[in-house]
Amino acid sequence: RNDGNSIGGVIQLVAKNVPPGWGEPVFHKLDAMLAMAMISIGAVKGIEFGAGFGAAQMTGSEHNDQITPNGFDSNNAGGILGGISNGDSIIMQMAIKPTPSISISQATIDTNGNPEMITIKGRHDPCICSRICPVAEAMAAIVLADAFLLNKRQVLQ
User: Which of 19, 142, 157 is nearest to 89 (CA)?
Assistant: First the structure.
């Protein structure tokens, strides 16, 4: 804050006690619906579930969530397998960009395309990660409520 700049960060959201069976295997995958909701939030620039991008560095035997009588040995899938919740906690991490409103002068152009400098004045948050958390929780709650209703409809048919 003192140097007039901003920073981004990574936030984690964990949805506990989501029953197995929510979501669909192709067009309404639960992770796809959650990802769409999260990426719709203004500063979110990336999302991963479970091991996420770290899975690219794993072998199949390291990444596979082996099931036991007590549940899964790991949660590398982040609680969703094949687009369907598996009963484990759904774990998402989101990359949040730095806020562009900083008090350091920056180059821009005017409405005629001529270069000029701009300095934004006022109070601006140096990091908005803590402000994104309740928004992400609300978006996840909406998606999970929708998944609950879709699952309930299918059970009733």
Answer: 19
Q: Are strands 115-118 and 106-109 parallel, antiparallel or unpaired?
A: antiparallel
Q: 9-156 adopts what CATH topology?
A: Chorismate synthase, AroC fold (3.60.150)
Confidence band for 4, pLDDT divided at 50, 70 and 90: confident
Supply φ then ψ for residue 26, to 5 degrees: -125, -80
pTM, rounded to two decimals: 0.89
Residue 1: its pLDDT value, please?
A: 63
Give the residue from 65, 61, 27, 66 showing the smallest Cα distance to 49.
65
Residue 34 has a CB neighbour count (10 Å cut-off) of: 26
Angular region, 22: left φ>0, alpha ψ -120 to 50, beta rest: beta
Q: Which of 133, 28, 36, 136 is nearest to 82 (CA)?
A: 28
- Residue (of 106, 109, 90, 88) closest to 98 by Cα position: 106
Tokens of 112: 């005629």
Predicted confidence at residue 2, as pLDDT, reads: 72
